[in-house]
């Protein structure tokens, strides 16, 4: 039995009832979406039930199935961080759950996800920006935040377009973006604490709308 047990971090995406007291968990782990059989998880006194909140980041102890075509079994779960129970965050909750369900065989940075969970109640839109950028990276769409995507020039930057892949200099765009918007994007990539401190929610809302549009176009 011991050689079939392992631990991993995971995000709880769904719990479906199975039989009288059991359940099937849909989880996102470091190599994609998987399913686990969770014995007794519907019981009110189940410790695993309390430690598997939807969108929670959880440490999972798993027993691999002896059979290739059977799902593994949850042995023990320990919650690390949870999505806040706040009705004001429902739209963000729905959006995150939607996008995470499309991440299969891809490697999400769980440390960044933990930072998102710990920040989202205080700074909802900035935190969503932080997570959406990580999801863009997972899908191979992370922009260039260092120089013009066309010529690699680091000066005379005037524009940023997600669909073009990042910053653009005045030789390759005539669309002059607000300097605060351009700076916000830089700090979103390089230092999340500065991004939160120096830039307001309105800039994040604009950034989020553009990232959501890109993500919905590729999934």
Automatic annotation (TrEMBL):
GO CC field: bacterial nucleoid
Pfam families named in the record: RecO_C (PF02565)
Xref: InterPro entries: ARFGAP/RecO, RecO
Domain of life: Bacteria
Any one GO biological process: DNA recombination
Entry-linked NCBIfam families: reco (TIGR00613)
The protein's name: DNA replication and repair protein RecO
Record lineage: Bacteria, Bacillati, Mycoplasmatota, Mycoplasmoidales, Metamycoplasmataceae
